[in-house]
UniProtKB/TrEMBL annotation:
Native species: Stentor coeruleus
Keyword Ligase found: yes
Catalytic activity: tRNA(Phe) + L-phenylalanine + ATP = L-phenylalanyl-tRNA(Phe) + AMP + diphosphate + H(+)
SUPFAM superfamilies linked: Anticodon-binding domain of PheRS (SSF54991), Class II aaRS and biotin synthetases (SSF55681)
Primary location class: mitochondrion
Name used for this protein in its record: phenylalanine--tRNA ligase
Residue stretches making up the FDX-ACB domain: 268-357
Length: 357
């Protein structure tokens, strides 16, 4: 995959500025969380949600100890402007700037990842990041093990408070996890409508991350991050992630800051149009490349892409993918989808190196 690899469809999303729309469900949720921190920790946390989306590879990966061979370091998973700058894949990329002058902060913003296509995945989504640091000496602690125990206690207390504020009185559990930039690392799961939901990832800052932020060896703290869409889809009952980027008034008119966390009332769902794409695989094939090509052609008319068949013949592998086309605001004609499908078949061999069947 060549660099740069940012398509016009992705550039369109950069100017949406969803979190500046006060009556958007994501903004309503973000503000509820901000208000919770202001109420429980008055004057402690600095809040910022206007960082630029373009960040350095150094801040997005290197300083966060993400290994060179990690999948996110490659253009198959990440959008690159050039070899040194990317569209941020997480708001954690801004921790270093915030840590220069702040001991506690919240960051919110849109992040970008090349991903599969279905009702829960989109190449852009919004993340909310939080962090807090202390100094061992200022708390009268003598070593990093004590600092780690203190940070874990404060982290769990803080996160459980946020989860209760948003989801109500629910059952929670902590799961051991792994993130390169925290040690130990944890995930919080909440029981929502009878099922366990992965709510967020968090942990105690890895000492080398704080060192990369210019902090001395006596500094310790915690950090967390989660996708606002993941939480909003549950508390607002929104079934399709594409709706968050929609300007359809049947969607946008249902929400306001005054109403708070109100439930989404579904409007008529237009019929789906299915089209299949079958091809022989090249020596190297990455599904994310296919998803990106489909998105470039079909945009938000593409609801889902699924692999429905795979076989091997005479040493060659073949796959068939089914593309679900569905508009959120009108009925699609078979003729207009045929035009998109013809275009997809024209560019797929060149972009992906496949041989159509």
């Amino acid at each position: 995959m060549a660099i740069p690899n940012i398509s016009p469809k992705i550039y369109e999303l950069l100017g949406k500025k969803i979190l500046q729309r006060q009556n958007h469900p994501l903004t309503i949720l973000k503000n509820k969380i901000y208000e919770h921190f202001q109420k429980v920790y008055p004057g402690v946390f600095t809040m910022k949600d206007d960082f630029p989306q373009r960040v350095s590879v150094e801040d997005n990966f290197v300083k966060l100890l993400i290994p060179d061979d990690h999948p996110t370091r490659f253009p198959t998973d990440t959008y690159f402007f050039d070899k040194n700058t990317v569209l941020r894949t997480h708001t954690t990329a801004h921790d270093f700037e915030m840590l220069k002058n702040h001991n506690a902060f919240l960051i919110a913003g849109d992040v970008y990842r090349r991903d599969e296509i279905d009702a829960k995945h989109y190449p852009a989504f919004h993340q909310l990041e939080g962090a807090r640091i202390w100094n061992l000496e200022s708390l009268g602690l003598s070593n990093h093990n004590q600092g780690k125990e203190f940070a874990l206690y404060e982290l769990k207390k803080t996160i459980e408070g946020v989860a209760e504020e948003v989801f109500g009185d629910i059952e929670m559990r902590w799961i051991d996890a792994y993130f390169p930039f925290t040690e130990p690392s944890l995930e919080l799961e909440v029981k929502w409508q009878g099922e366990w939901l992965e709510a967020l990832g968090c942990g105690v800052y890895h000492p080398n991350v704080l060192k990369n932020a210019g902090k001395d060896s006596n500094t310790f703290g915690w950090a967390f991050g989660f996708g606002l869409e993941r939480w909003a889809m549950k508390v607002f009952d929104i079934p399709d992630i594409r709706l968050f980027w929609s300007d359809d008034k049947r969607f946008t008119s249902q929400f306001s800051a005054e109403k708070g966390l109100t439930k989404f009332v579904p409007f008529s769902k237009y019929p789906v149009c299915y089209k299949d794409l079958s091809f022989w695989l090249p020596e190297i094939f990455v599904e994310n490349d296919l998803f990106e090509v489909v998105r470039d052609v079909g945009g938000d008319l593409v609801e889902k892409v699924e692999k429905i068949d795979e076989f091997e013949k005479k040493g060659k592998k073949s796959r068939c993918y089914r593309i679900h086309y569905r508009s959120m605001d009108r009925s699609l004609s078979n003729e207009e989808i045929d035009v998109l499908q013809v275009r997809l078949r024209e560019i797929a061999p060149e972009k992906l190196g496949v041989v159509l069947r």
